[in-house]
C-alpha cells in the first residue's frame, strides 16, 4: 500500500498488486482525487491557470480505514510505504487508520523519507519480496537498506510556488525572485534542504553534470534511475539518453511528477532519483 505521490507505471501497479491511496488536490475551491479525476498533465494546466496556489491534502482517514479493512479481510498482512512525513501528514493518517480499523498488528508502516520514484523503488522492492514469499522482517530490512542508499536531487528553476506555499521565508523568497535564483533541493534522512543556489541555465547545466558524474562513478551499482519532471519532457528524455550512454543496462523511467510535488516545485522543476546497491 502506498500513496499517489509515488512514481509507478500502471503496469507495475497491476503486476505487483500495489494499492495506491490517492491524495486530494484543491484548485480554486474545487477538489479532485489525485489520479482518479485529474491526470498529472491536466493538473499542471489547471495549476498554471489557477488564481491561487493549489492545495494538496492527505487521503481522508475514512478511505484509509476502508482500504486497510479490505486488504486485511482475508488475514493478509499489509506493508504501507508513504511519502516523507516532512512533506505530508499521509503517514500519520495511515497509522491512525490502522488503529481505527483494529489492524495495527497486521499493518506495518514505513516512512520512505522521500517521494516520487525514490518511494517507488522501495514499494517495488517490498512487492517483489512479498511475491517471492519473504517474511515481513526481511521485507522491511530490504526497504530500509534501499532507503539508506537513495539519492534525490531536485532542480527548482522558478521559486514562485515555493515562496507562495511558504516553503521559503518571505525575505529569501524576494531576494531569489529578484536575482533569478535557482535552487537544488535534497532530502537527506527525510528532511527537505536547499543544497545549492545559483543563477540561470549555467547553474542547471552544472547540476546535471554533477549528478551524471555521480551516476558514472557508481554505474555498476545503480540498476534504476527515475527522472521526474513538471512540464519539460524533451530535455528529460535527453538527460535519460546521457544516463543510458554511461551504462545501457541502467533502467531509466522518465515521467511527469505528481501534483503533490508539482504544486510546490513549480514549472520547469525536475528530479533525478536513484539508489546505489
UniProtKB/TrEMBL annotation:
Q: Which UniProt keywords apply?
A: Lipid-binding
Q: What Pfam families does the record tag this protein with?
A: DegV
Parts of the chain that traverse the membrane: none
**Gene Ontology terms for molecular function:** lipid binding
Highest taxon listed in the record's lineage: Bacteria
Q: InterPro entries from the xrefs?
A: DegV, DegV_C, DegV_domain_contain
PROSITE patterns membership: DEGV
Q: Does the keyword Coiled coil apply?
A: no
Tell me the protein's name: EDD domain protein, DegV family
Which species is listed as the source?
Lactobacillus ultunensis DSM 16047
Q: What is the lineage of its organism?
A: Bacteria, Bacillati, Bacillota, Bacilli, Lactobacillales
Amino acid at each position: 500500500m502506498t500513496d499517489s505521490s509515488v512514481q509507478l507505471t500502471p503496469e507495475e501497479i497491476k503486476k505487483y498488486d500495489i494499492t495506491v491511496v490517492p491524495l486530494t488536490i484543491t484548485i480554486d475551491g474545487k477538489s479532485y482525487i489525485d489520479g482518479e479525476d485529474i491526470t498529472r498533465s491536466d493538473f499542471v494546466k489547471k495549476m498554471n491557470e489557477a488564481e491561487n496556489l493549489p492545495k494538496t491534502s492527505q487521503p481522508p482517514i475514512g478511505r484509509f480505514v476502508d482500504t486497510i479493512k479490505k486488504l486485511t479481510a482475508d488475514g493478509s498482512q499489509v506493508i504501507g510505504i508513504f511519502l516523507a512525513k516532512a512533506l505530508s501528514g499521509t503517514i500519520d493518517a495511515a497509522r491512525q487508520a490502522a488503529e481505527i480499523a483494529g489492524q495495527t498488528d497486521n499493518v506495518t508502516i514505513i516512512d520512505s523519507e522521500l517521494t516520487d520514484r525514490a518511494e517507488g523503488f522501495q514499494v517495488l522492492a517490498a512487492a517483489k519480496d512479498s511475491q517471492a514469499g519473504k517474511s515481513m522482517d526481511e521485507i522491511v530490512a530490504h526497504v530500509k537498506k534501499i532507503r539508506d542508499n537513495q539519492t534525490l536531487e531536485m532542480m527548482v528553476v522558478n521559486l514562485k510556488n515555493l515562496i507562495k506555499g511558504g516553503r521559503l521565508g518571505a525575505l529569501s523568497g524576494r531576494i531569489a525572485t529578484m536575482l533569478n535564483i535557482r535552487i537544488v533541493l535534497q532530502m537527506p534522512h527525510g528532511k527537505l534542504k536547499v543544497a545549492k543556489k545559483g543563477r540561470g541555465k549555467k547553474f542547471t547545466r552544472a547540476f546535471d553534470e554533477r549528478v551524471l558524474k555521480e551516476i558514472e562513478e557508481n554505474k555498476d551499482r545503480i540498476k534504476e534511475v527515475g527522472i521526474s519532471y513538471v512540464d519539460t519532457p524533451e530535455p528529460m528524455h535527453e538527460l535519460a539518453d546521457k544516463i543510458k550512454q554511461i551504462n545501457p543496462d541502467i533502467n531509466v523511467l522518465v515521467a511527469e511528477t505528481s501534483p503533490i510535488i508539482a504544486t510546490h516545485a513549480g514549472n520547469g522543476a525536475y528530479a533525478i532519483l536513484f539508489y546505489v546497491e
